[in-house]
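Sample intake — MFS transporter
Collected from: Planomonospora corallina
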Amino acid sequence: MGRQRGLQLGSELTRLAMPLLVLALTGSPGAAGVVAGARAVAFLPVQLPAGVWVDRWDRRRTLITAQSLQAAVSALLAALILTGQAQI
């Protein structure tokens, strides 16, 4: 259960940090709001069906795959920021 709380904490921190990152990069509160809103709009219709599917899959493999994809996307975002190529 401690691991799950750690994953939830990381997800919540990402949810908080992404609009702040957009604000820092663009200086636009509107763009930060659009990013936060887009995440919420995309997350809501996907959450329920994904929960049903994940319950039928191997939990270990699903967790490893999801965490690997999240790490790859985070590395890509960091590379884009460091090279000045990040865009909304």
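Post-analysis note: Residues 66 and 78 are 18 Å apart (CA to CA).
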